[in-house]
Design goal:
alpha+beta; 3-stranded antiparallel sheet; 6 helices; about 30% helix; disordered N terminus
Length: about 240
């Protein structure tokens, strides 16, 4: 099934949506949200959260971070509910042992996902939120250009990537590393492994962050392959990984 992705609500006014115009079999849509636009909807969005989500929101000491939690979880529920033809408050969203979110149950017959499961992935940075919904396993990740690298550099780069990074101009290496990292995060989310993914043994393209990427990745002993798409704009970057 080939569905043209629906992209809405650019997180950065005046800049292109990350995956606008990208046609990927099995991808239903990618949506971006600027949470500032939704701030006044917080009271309503809290009402559609699960009891567990509301309890967690109430336990967050910082009002700022509690509000962000409610906005993110509420918008995710609305988005997935729309795709499945189910009321947002009725969604039963769980997580695997590695943190990959999934919905217990199937969509309504006339929904975007049909009477099957809904695969989705979420990433957020500050006031920006991106959600990918697909008929196949999917992972999406987003990073700002000024993202921290020190915490992850020692586990994230393969030997090939370290060589490629060393060949970049000095002022391009940090963004080059972040570019590789965001691709690997999307791949890890696709595979449902989180930080259990072996980042150091997987190599992805390392090049100036301005260059778009679109390639197929396979894994030893695994029949499934993953299509990875990378896009960047002035202040942020994102990668999408979907099983083909």
């Amino acid at each position: 099934m080939l569905v043209k992705p629906i992209t809405t609500g650019g997180a950065v006014p005046g800049e292109r949506l990350f995956f606008s115009g990208v046609d990927i079999p099995g991808l239903l849509f990618v949506r971006e949200f600027d949470l500032n636009v939704h701030a006044d909807r917080r009271p309503y969005l809290q009402t559609i959260l699960s009891a567990g989500e509301q309890e967690r929101a109430n336990s967050i000491a910082s009002r700022k971070f509690a509000d962000l939690f409610v906005l993110r979880r509420g918008i995710v529920r609305e988005t997935i509910g729309d795709a499945m033809g189910i009321e947002a408050a009725r969604l039963d969203i769980s997580r695997t042992r590695y943190g990959k979110p999934f919905v217990n149950g199937i969509g309504s017959e006339k929904s975007l996902v049909g009477n099957g499961p809904c695969r989705f992935s979420v990433s957020h940075k500050g006031q920006s939120l991106i959600i990918a919904v697909a008929l196949r396993e999917v992972g999406v990740d987003m990073e700002t250009m000024d993202g921290k690298t020190e915490r992850i550099a020692h586990i994230a780069s393969s030997k090939d990537e370290q060589v490629a990074l060393s060949l970049l101009a000095v002022n391009k290496r940090r963004s080059g590393f972040l570019k590789a990292w965001v691709q690997k995060e999307a791949i890890s989310k696709n595979r449902g492994l989180g930080m259990a993914f072996d980042f150091g043994s997987t190599s992805v393209p390392v090049s100036p962050v301005e260059a778009d990427e679109d390639y197929i990745l396979g894994f030893p002993g695994c029949l499934e392959r993953i299509r990875v798409v990378f896009r960047a704009r002035t202040s942020s970057m994102a990668a999408l990984a979907i099983t083909i």
